[in-house]
UniProtKB/TrEMBL annotation:
<feature type="transmembrane region" description="Helical">
    <location>
        <begin position="7"/>
        <end position="27"/>
    </location>
</feature>
<protein>
    <submittedName>
        <fullName>Efflux RND transporter periplasmic adaptor subunit</fullName>
    </submittedName>
</protein>
<keyword id="KW-1133">Transmembrane helix</keyword>
<keyword id="KW-0813">Transport</keyword>
<dbReference type="GO" id="GO:0030313">
    <property type="term" value="C:cell envelope"/>
</dbReference>
<keyword id="KW-0472">Membrane</keyword>
<dbReference type="InterPro" id="IPR051909">
    <property type="entry name" value="MFP_Cation_Efflux"/>
</dbReference>
<dbReference type="GO" id="GO:0060003">
    <property type="term" value="P:copper ion export"/>
</dbReference>
<keyword id="KW-0812">Transmembrane</keyword>
<dbReference type="GO" id="GO:0015679">
    <property type="term" value="P:plasma membrane copper ion transport"/>
</dbReference>
<feature type="coiled-coil region">
    <location>
        <begin position="95"/>
        <end position="129"/>
    </location>
</feature>
<keyword id="KW-0175">Coiled coil</keyword>
Amino acid sequence: MKNKLNAFLVIQAILILILVWLLTYFGRDEFNNIKPNSDISKNTQSLIKSANGVNYITLSPEIQSNSGIKTQPVQTSDYIKNLTNYATVLSIDLLIEQKNKFNEIKNQISLLSNELERDKKNYERFKALNDDNKNVSDKAFQEMKVNFENTKIKLQTTQELITGIKQNIRAQWGEIILSMIDAGARKELFEFLVQGKARIIKVTLPENADNQPPKNISLALIDNLNEKFLASYLAESPTLDKSIKGKTYFYIVYSNQLRIDSKVIANQVQDKLSSESGKYLAIPKEAVIWNSGQAWVYVQSSENKFFRKSIETITESSNGWIVKENQIKENDLIVINGAQLLLSEEFKYQIKNENDD
């Protein structure tokens, strides 16, 4: 009986050992999965740092190498903003009519001024004679006085006509073109316009263009883009083109080949950017990542620090985007391979913190 009990205990012990072994063998994958997850969580938390409320990622050179993260310096770009837009060849027939009317009224003013000066002298002479023992009758003196007052009113009315014409020209064409008519400025240019040897072009530039319009633009016919005309800046237009959003300017073309009222295509002449306009940087498309509709790049500020910075994507180039030097500077190191990995790591840490909260 005792031998049977011992045999049973031995068999029971063997079965327990077998069960423990089976449990360990088949549960090894679950055990292994728990350990790496713990390591990743710990490692992720150590990668994300914060300075002045701004998060950045820290990666050792070894991790950068193993993750395939590559950087390159930001280069400047000779790119010039493309100011392509439609322009209109303006008719100056109404302006010429206004100029002729202006000159006609100025001649009237000159005549009335001389007449007023003469009537004033006669009025003063008649008044002196009338005061001197009525050497001139009261009736004759009153007639001369009325004549003098009427001439004065005529002159004032005519001068108001001139003011009205000047206001109309100023409202339609601006001060520069008004000065051509009022003060005779740029007389040769206006003669070219009247003779049809030059044209005024009204150009609408995009709203995101620089505040200063380009000095020169190139014009091309819509039906013949190979035929180009050089246009020089004249003045800002006081009126807008309702069909196109943007700022409007007047340009001069010394050519009679452009038909009045025709539409032409305007492009900025490709001169290099001046130092006053600031630097433009080329951001390669490989460096750009998107999140919530915003474009971002990662900038390496030191051997192991990476900051995420936003960029504008208004101006696209053949290999990325052109941005004005601001948050990103020339020769900054930007990530061109592995940026998406950095973004995922950063947001994984943020999600973990939200879950912990």
